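Quick start: what a row looks like.
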Amino acid sequence: MYRLTYKSKSSGPINKETLRDILYASMESNRLHGVTGALLATHSHYLQVLEGDFAGVNETFLRIARDPRHDTLELVAFGPVTRRLFDKWNMKAFGIFDLNKELADQLMEKYGEENGGVRFPIQEWAALSLIFDVSMMNNQAFSF
């Protein structure tokens, strides 16, 4: 079992429709390759965690790296793990575009600010923490 975490700058603005299109396109491919994970997006950046066997995760990441929606791709972590953290999510997507000001300020205070949104961490533990923080917001973040 492997986990890969990356962040990227988008080549264009990200909105709910962009996120929905990515999610729907990836769900079938992820199911076929046994990949699970989570995707966060601001208006300008992505943060994603992929989990599965080496070949499935590697192939999925290589496909993402060729996707023209990504401008700058940065590998945060890739390595073996003992179990999945996102075993229930074939792929779950969260858009943290229009959080209420209080939640956005809390996330930016904890993780930093980048291009008017939450900064995505470059340490794996912090990236996973952010994903879990957003997933616990109970309908405050836009999710699929």
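That is the whole record. The chain has four helices and eight strands. The longest strand covers residues 70-80.
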